[in-house]
């Protein structure tokens, strides 16, 4: 079972609140203010619990925090986490400080099921988790509207990778799994599982891999191998 990192990305540390005065002078002052609302925090935490409830394995929601140092924003985050957790007694919970969590994600990655985090913490953990798996080319992302009132967006966590565009060396797997996340969000669970199974099979065989995974295959060759595996798996389950 893959670990899910649920990241709040409409507020928090990247809200853009702050300012800078007396630039270039000894008295220069810079502020960068995090913004946390009950609406935003409760929404992302509740969504994490809802995702955990759909998981087949032992269900655990880990709260990424730093309330021992950030005594307003993260203390508030923890309070809301505990309030929401009380509504999901069937799901195990834990709160882990972000510095320790970064270490544990490397030393015992299989422990984690669903991690819920603020914008900054989620940003860091998603790249770290990708590195643990083998590289950023394997990590999918989704910008979701939980209420489904507006379209959601699905993409690799690295974005479009313009620095290697057109070279045929980009790993397409993150984009493919992002499509799987889209299918899952659309409640096309069988199709999502088929796509995920094809990716896992191609990686397990180890015959076709892009340079970031130590191989020599092109983007197209990996994509073609996944498509062939999808057809093969679909035929076997027909």
Description:
- By secondary structure, the chain is α/β, with parallel strands linked by helices.
- It has two domains: 1-133, 3-Layer(aba) Sandwich (Isopropylmalate Dehydrogenase); 159-238, no CATH class.
- It contains seven helices and eight strands; from the N terminus they run βββαβαβαβαββααα.
- It has helices spanning 38-53, 73-85, 98-107, 119-133, 173-185, 189-205, 219-236, and strands at 4-7, 12-21, 29-35, 60-65, 92-97, 114-117, 140-143, 153-156.
- A four-stranded parallel sheet has the order 1-6-4-5, sandwiched between helices.
- It is globular and about 65 Å long.
- The relative contact order is 0.11.
- The model has no long low-confidence stretch (mean pLDDT 92).
Kindly summarize this structure in a few lines.
The chain is of the alpha/beta class and 238 residues long. It contains 7 helices and 8 strands.
Order of helices and strands: EEEHEHEHEHEEHHH
Beta-strand portion reads 15-25%
Q: What value does the Rg take, in angstroms?
A: 20 Å
Mean pLDDT: 92
Distance between the termini: 24 Å
Query: What's the architecture of the largest domain in CATH terms?
Result: 3-Layer(aba) Sandwich
- Helical fraction: 40-55%
Instruction: Indicate the low-confidence ranges by residue numbers.
Output: none
Global shape: globular
How would you write the strand order of the largest sheet?
Answer: 1-6-4-5
CATH level-1 class of the largest domain: Alpha Beta
CATH superfamily membership of the largest domain: Isopropylmalate Dehydrogenase
């Amino acid at each position: 079972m893959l670990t899910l990192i649920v990241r709040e990305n409409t507020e928090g540390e990247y809200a853009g609140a702050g300012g800078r005065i007396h630039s270039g002078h000894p008295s220069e002052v810079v502020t960068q203010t995090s913004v946390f609302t009950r609406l935003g925090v409760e929404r992302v935490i509740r969504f994490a619990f809802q995702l955990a409830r759909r998981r087949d394995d032992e269900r655990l929601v880990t709260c990424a925090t730093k309330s021992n140092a950030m005594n307003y924003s993260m203390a508030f985050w923890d309070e809301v986490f505990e309030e929401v957790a009380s509504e999901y007694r069937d799901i195990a919970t834990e709160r882990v400080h972000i510095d320790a969590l970064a270490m544990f994600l490397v030393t015992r990655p299989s422990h984690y099921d669903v991690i819920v985090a603020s914008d900054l913490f989620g940003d860091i953990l998603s790249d770290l988790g990708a590195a643990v798996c083998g590289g950023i080319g394997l990590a999918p992302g989704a910008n979701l509207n939980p209420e489904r009132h507006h379209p959601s967006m699905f993409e690799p966590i690295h974005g479009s990778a313009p620095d290697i565009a057109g070279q045929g060396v980009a790993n397409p797997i993150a984009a493919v799994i992002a499509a799987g996340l889209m299918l899952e969000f659309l409640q096309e669970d069988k199709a999502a599982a088929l796509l995920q199974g094809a990716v896992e099979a191609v990686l397990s065989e180890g015959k076709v891999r892009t340079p970031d995974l130590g191989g020599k295959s092109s983007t197209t060759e990996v994509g073609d191998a996944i498509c062939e595996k999808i057809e093969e798996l679909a035929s076997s389950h027909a």
